[in-house]
Amino acid sequence: MTTIGVLGGRWRASVSRSGCVEPWDGSRVLDWFVAADDRWHVPASEPTTRQQLIENTPVVETRVKVPSGDVVHRVWCVADEGGLTVVEIENESPLPIAVAFSRGDLLSTRPPTGVPIQGIDLPEDAVTFPVGHRSSIRIALCHDRPRAGTLPDRVPTALQVARGWMTIVDRAGRLVVPEEAVASTVARVRSQLALTGPADPADDGAAFLLDVGELVRMGERPAPWTLDVAEAVSSVARRPDSWEALAALDAAAIVLARADEPRALRDLDRLRPTDVHPLPTTPPTSAAESYVLAWHEQRLARRAATGRAELLANGIPSPWLGANFEIYGIPVGPATTVSYAIRWHGDRPAVLWETDGPTIELTSPVIAPQWSTGEAKGEALWPPVATDVGLSFS
Q1: What is the distance of C-alpha 47 from the center of its chain?
Q2: What's this model's pTM, rounded to 2 decimal places?
Q3: Shared domain check, 176 and 146
Q4: Is the domain of 221 the same as that of 186?
Q5: Distances from the Cα of 112 to the Cα of 69, 71, 105, 205, 385, angstroms
Q6: Residue 330 and residue 187: Cα distance in Å, rounded?
Q7: Strand partners, 75
Q8: Number of Cα atoms under 13 Å in the Cβ half of residue 111
Q9: Does residue 222 share a domain with residue 130?
């Protein structure tokens, strides 16, 4: 299930693997059905139904195969008209189809057909729209007082909304790496976090701190979180015996720094252990995706101690050896971020780095044990990297 909604608004819904929209306020679901030239196709039970997130954001695309092509269902939310959930149906097949929706209180770009729905059992107020070959139609569900009517043409497109989400997600740091799944995971987890909010601090204080740190880095105001952060820090600091706990405390430091709480920041610094813990070589299998996101960031750059940070703490992943990659805006201190790029000269990686914020010493104990720098920007040629230095992951 993928959560959709508008930042700043309260309305949320879940989108099932078949594209069914299930509002969190308890109102009726918005499901869809396709009449092709052979039969009615019910996406929830079709073996050809498959789904993806556009740019790994809360813009969901679901495809169902009909004779000679696909029918594509896209759903996203916009702030227009007080909040809308927009559904676009695109007919990629060479034959006309009809699409039915399970409720009629919808805005649409053109009126539904008055022809009775036959061959499938649907709610009494279900509506049907013809969709010509290689054409599309758009409908929308109003978040406030759902009603039938005309959908304005100016509503942002799926791609425009996805790009807007990527702008928000990239505020917390951007990864341009050889394995697309890594950047995809980061974008998906961050965008879902922005809609669903942090973990419950009573259930998992470390996950809560990691989540709030990401939210603040994406642009949320830190001040409303400071009291809850202080309480979570107290519980996590009692058992700072793992990399997750240290990452959580460092996330809390980011929140406190941005909230301009220097006294709390000094207290937190005294609580934080000086020794870093080894990172596992594979992502954690915890149900909390907070830890997966933190693991990806920590292995690229992490705070080692006050005024010192490590790059590539586990080495260069095996699939990345020989491939150029770039990392932007990863935090390595309460108010310091690092960006760097790796370029290869044969078997030797060259690092180009730039830090933003208070001065910090950069190191890379696994890749270049003799290298360190306190310069805010520069470049260096690291020693040759043997194949067994890079660590693979799944």
Answers
A1: 27
A2: 0.91
A3: no
A4: yes
A5: 23, 18, 11, 50, 63
A6: 14
A7: 60, 87
A8: 3
A9: no
* pLDDT per residue of the chain (394 residues) written in tens, 0 to 9: 899 999 999 999 999 999 999 999 999 999 999 999 999 999 999 999 999 999 999 999 999 999 989 999 999 999 999 999 999 999 999 999 999 999 999 999 999 998 888 889 899 999 999 999 889 999 999 999 999 999 998 999 999 999 999 999 999 999 999 999 999 999 999 999 999 999 999 999 999 999 999 999 999 999 999 999 999 999 998 887 899 999 999 999 999 999 999 999 999 998 888 878 889 988 888 668 999 999 999 999 999 988 899 999 999 999 999 999 999 999 999 999 999 999 999 999 999 999 999 999 999 999 999 999 999 999 999 999 864 444 433 3
Who's near 192: CB < 8 A, 6+ residues apart? 2, 3, 58, 289
Strand partners, 372: 363
Which single residue is written with the structure tokens 């979180």?
Answer: 225
Residue 284 sits in the same domain as residue 337: yes
The domain tally of the chain equals 2
Cα atoms in the 13 Å half-sphere on the side-chain side of 331: 24
Q: Is residue 53 part of a domain?
A: yes
Helix (H) or strand (E) holding 117: none
Q: Judging by beta carbons within 10 Å of its beta carbon (0-12, 13-18, 19+), is residue 286 exposed, middle or buried?
A: middle
Q: What are phi and psi of 209, to 5 degrees?
A: -65, -40
